[in-house]
């Protein structure tokens, strides 16, 4: 009941007229961010972050999380109406959402997506409510070795659970580590990889990297592909909406399975994108109508949307309780907490309970507001997306440049953002994932500090990483995840050899 009582206190903090207004504004901004290709939740939150410096931390984090929910819903809108995923995690929604919309069932497709997304997000928030206190108490047992083991397990999870090439994931992560080492060493005080640029002594701001990678990089790719905004018309039909919402519980098995996948992938570093693809694949495998997936099947919308939003919610739990973001957006938010003078981790629940539980309470309200607003604004965004890319593209570019300059008011940061934009373009052209790069850039220096502190404590003996059951388990799991792609490939070769032997 302790968590329930604290949650009620959190509602007392969140349910003020000021904070409800902030939620509405944040959701609307997030919808715009999610709808416009080239932006997205990580870039949108990073652009908004400098504007929150004058706000109190609770109001600031409520604004950012509300934008996050809105961006997730906005990405689903364009996936269904225009076959343009506004968010990477919305790609799987296009497989059945757009075919259903082309069949004249756009409102039904949107209603399926938003209702299942709301259920997924609510499940994720409930998981955060139930587990946050336990995770915080458990984390009190952590020392330098345990923290490094958690970071190692996080990095290994991205490699072991990579949806694409583990090698590309590893390369992206190594580049992120390199970017994290730029600037002054926190232990020795020496400058590293500054190349005699005084502006790099303070390091590379992850905000600059995110604006370039996710914003400008996507714009460059969009211009090359000559994207045209051609969508289907959607009118707000209340009877269809109510009928579709009542239909969703029939797919309870898909909802439960997808929510569990999303919660797991959110708490671990898998993230919403991996969760949505995994849930779609499992949904097609276990559905009785699996052969109809890709042709406008309702389960093909419900599965990725539920997993996407439950993962997006749960990604905030490791960020708050352990200081480890479960997604690129939560990594950006974690940087915001540090800027506001808050240290994510177990002590945050003890020292700032009003902040933590006010945030959790706002998640419940924010998702409800997002569902209502996104249904009401579908025709509006359909109209906006009829604007030519020659108008939308320059607007996004201006927003990115202003955001990069706002971080520290340095012209050098604009050039740095452009450089990261080119890097983002190359990443996407070569199909290298961006999330591992951002994760490594945010956590690289923390992992390095934890490793060096642990080694100093043990007089240079690596045995400290296997000195007790907790750290040994996490290191062992991390090593297993790191080797998982090789184990899977070896098992596949053995099965293939066995089939060939049987055939002979």
From TrEMBL:
The keyword Membrane appears for this protein: yes
InterPro entries: DUF112_TM (IPR002823)
Transmembrane segments: 20-40, 47-69, 109-135, 147-164, 170-188, 200-221, 259-282, 319-343, 355-384, 396-427, 465-491
Recorded superkingdom: Bacteria
Domain spans labelled DUF112: 21-439
Keyword entries, A-Z: Membrane, Transmembrane, Transmembrane helix
PANTHER family: BLR4373 PROTEIN, TRICARBOXYLIC TRANSPORT PROTEIN
Name recorded for this polypeptide: Tricarboxylate transporter
Biological classification of the source: Bacteria, Pseudomonadati, Pseudomonadota, Alphaproteobacteria, Hyphomicrobiales
């Amino acid at each position: 009941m302790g968590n329930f009582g604290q949650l009620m206190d959190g509602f007392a903090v969140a349910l003020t007229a000021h904070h409800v207004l902030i939620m509405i504004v944040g959701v609307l901004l997030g919808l715009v961010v999610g709808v416009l290709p080239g932006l997205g939740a990580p870039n949108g939150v990073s652009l908004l972050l400098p504007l929150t410096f004058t706000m109190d931390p609770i109001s600031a984090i409520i604004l950012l999380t509300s934008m996050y929910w809105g961006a997730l819903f906005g990405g689903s809108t364009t996936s269904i109406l225009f076959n343009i995923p506004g968010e990477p995690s919305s790609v799987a929604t296009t497989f059945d959402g757009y075919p259903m919309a082309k069949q004249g069932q756009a409102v039904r497709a949107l209603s399926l997506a938003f209702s299942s997304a709301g259920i997924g997000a609510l499940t994720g928030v409930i998981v955060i409510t139930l587990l946050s206190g336990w995770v915080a108490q458990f984390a009190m047992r952590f020392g330098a070795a345990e923290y490094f083991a958690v970071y190692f397990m996080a990095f290994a999870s991205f490699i072991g659970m990579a949806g694409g090439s583990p090698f590309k994931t590893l390369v992206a992560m190594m580049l992120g580590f390199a970017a994290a080492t730029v600037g002054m060493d926190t232990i020795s005080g020496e400058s590293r990889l500054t190349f005699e640029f005084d502006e790099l002594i303070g390091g590379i701001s992850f905000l600059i990297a995110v604006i370039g990678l996710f914003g400008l990089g996507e714009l460059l790719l969009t211009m090359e592909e000559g994207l045209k905004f051609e969508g289907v018309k959607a009118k707000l039909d209340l009877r269809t909406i109510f009928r579709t919402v009542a239909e969703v519980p029939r797919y309870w098995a898909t909802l439960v399975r997808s929510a569990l996948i999303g919660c797991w992938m959110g708490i671990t570093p898998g993230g919403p994108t991996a969760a949505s693809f995994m849930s779609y694949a499992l949904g097609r495998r276990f559905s009785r109508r699996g052969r109809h997936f890709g042709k406008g099947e309702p389960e093909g919308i419900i599965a990725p949307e539920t997993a996407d939003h439950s993962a997006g919610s749960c990604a905030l739990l490791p960020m708050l309780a352990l200081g480890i973001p479960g997604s690129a957006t939560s990594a950006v938010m974690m940087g915001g907490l540090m800027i506001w003078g808050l240290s994510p981790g177990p002590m945050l629940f003890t020292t700032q309970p009003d902040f933590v539980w006010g945030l959790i309470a706002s998640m419940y309200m924010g998702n409800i507001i997002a569902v209502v607003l996104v249904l009401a604004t579908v025709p509006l965004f359909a109209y906006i997306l009829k604007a030519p890319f020659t108008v939308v593209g320059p607007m996004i570019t201006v927003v990115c440049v202003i955001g990069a300059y706002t971080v520290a008011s340095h012209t050098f940061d604009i050039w740095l953002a452009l450089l990261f934009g080119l890097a983002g373009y190359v990443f996407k052209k070569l199909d290298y994932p961006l999330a591992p790069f951002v994760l490594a850039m945010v956590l690289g220096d923390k992992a390095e500090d934890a490793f060096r502190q642990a080694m100093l404590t043990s007089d240079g003996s690596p045995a400290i990483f296997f000195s007790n059951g907790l750290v040994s388990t996490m290191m062992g799991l991390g090593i297993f995840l790191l080797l998982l792609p090789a184990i899977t490939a070896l098992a596949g070769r053995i099965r293939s050899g066995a089939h060939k032997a049987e055939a002979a």
